[in-house]
Design goal:
Number of domains: 1
CATH superfamily: P-loop containing nucleotide triphosphate hydrolases
CATH topology: Rossmann fold
Strand content: 15-25%
Radius of gyration: 18 Å
Largest sheet: 7 strands, parallel
Strand order of the largest sheet: 3-2-4-1-5-8-9
Structural class: alpha/beta
Bound molecules: adenosine-5'-diphosphate, magnesium ion
Shape: globular
Number of helices: 11
Order of helices and strands: EHEHHEHEHEHEEHEHEHHH
Helix content: 40-55%
Length: about 270
């Protein structure tokens, strides 16, 4: 396919790790950097990203606040696999041709559409809560030695998707980023264990670890409001902008830097002005 978009898949075989929240924040960040962004939601059951964007579009003050929204398509799976896969590839091909970036939010379970989505990723972002339970998604850890026994089912799925991607003739680099989400200052011991194991595992199965968003209650209300951290300054909404939100925006900025998306936006800007 002739594509110009950088395709970002947000995936993890586990619910509640922040995939949809991170997807939405990435989308609005990239839009804010002047990129044209497409987004796809293949999580039919929760459809969190779709609902998040709908909440945003439905705000009566959306225009007044100048809220940017992506070109969004929901591709919920039906019971007809071949039809679903065809619909998904049509969507991704169209979006890849017409946007700078495409963000795909996936369900927290193994599904053929999710596998297909993973095979299109230039960047795969896996948000992970900072706990040994969540680490289980990436690797099996021997509780006696506290060392990695072997990569898990999801890590194998990512490996398979990479092969699919190569077989389609995709030449560009693929990068897997594990994002430590909902970081809290509690439980330093657990945090150290996770850190060490992630480090051990990253070398073994090939990902990079970046810090994500801290644990903050605001994310839930942002979803209902259809807003992101980036909108709070202009939003006269009933959310008060506090120091905690300043810190949260800085986390988001760090995330954009660490994932290389700030550089991506700069490169697009150069290309557009050439
Ligand atoms: N950094 C965070 N701090 C606090 N709550 C969060 C954070 N990230 C996500 N959440 C909340 O956790 C829940 C699950 O997040 P969501 O993005 O829907 O996860 P997933 O898409 O992986 O299932 C939501 O209620 C969301 O508001
Ligand atoms: Mg979700």
């Amino acid at each position: 396919m002739s594509k110009r978009a950088h395709i970002i898949v947000v995936g993890n075989e586990k619910g509640g790790t922040g995939k949809s929240t991170v997807s939405m924040h990435l989308i609005v960040s990239l839009l804010g950097l002047g990129l044209s962004v497409g987004s796809i939601d293949i999580d039919a059951r929760q459809a969190t990203l779709t609902r998040y964007i709908t909440n945003r579009r439905n705000r009566t003050d959306a225009a007044e606040l100048g809220l940017l929204a992506p070109d969004h398509v929901a591709v919920p799976p039906t019971t007809h696999r071949a039809g679903d896969e065809a619909r998904f590839s049509d969507t991704i091909i169209r979006m890849a041709q017409s946007h700078d970036a495409v963000v795909i939010d996936t369900p927290g379970s193994d599904h053929y559409l999710s596998r297909q989505a993973h095979s299109y990723a230039d960047t795969l972002i896996t948000p992970l809560n900072d706990s040994l339970i969540d680490l289980d998604v990436l690797a099996l850890v021997d509780p006696a030695t506290m060392h990695v026994t072997r990569p898990s089912h999801y890590a194998e799925m990512v490996w398979e998707s990479k092969k699919q991607r190569a077989m389609r003739g995709e030449k560009g680099p693929f990068e897997w980023i594990v994002l430590r989400n909902r970081l809290s200052s509690l439980d330093a011991r657990n945090k150290r264990d996770v850190e060490r194991l992630l480090d051990e595992l990253s070398k073994r199965i090939g990902f990079r670890v970046v810090p994500g968003l801290g644990e903050r209650v605001i994310y839930r209300s942002l979803f209902l409001e259809g807003l992101t951290l980036l909108d709070l300054r202009q939003a006269a909404a009933n959310i008060e902008f506090t120091m905690s939100h300043v810190a949260a925006r800085q986390e988001l900025r760090t995330l954009l830097e660490a994932t290389g998306f700030l550089r991506l936006a700069a490169a697009e800007a150069v290309a557009a002005s050439a």
